[in-house]
Amino acid sequence: MQSNLLLKITSLNVIVISIRLTVSLVIQRVLSTTVGEIGIAQIGQLRNLIQILMSTASLGIFNGVIKYVSEFRDDNQRLKDLFKTTFTFVFIGSIVTSLTVFFYASWITIELFGSLEFVNIIKLLALLPLVIGINRAFQGILNGLSDYKKYAKIDLLSYILSATILLVCLYFYKLEGVLFSIVITPIIQLVIILYIFGSTLKKLIKVKDLAFKIPFAKELLAFALMSFVSTALLNYIELDIRTMITKKIHINEAGYWTAMSFISKNYMTFSSGLFSLYVVPKFARIYSKHAFIYEVFYIYKTLLPLFGIGMLVVYTLREQIIAIIYPNFAGLEPLFKWQLLGDFISLATLVVAHQFLAKKMVKSFIITELISLGLFYFLSKNFIVLYGAEGVVIAHFIRSIIILVIVCFLVARSFDNQSKIS
Question: Taking the domains of the chain in order of start, what are their residue ranges?
Answer without folding.
Answer: 2-421
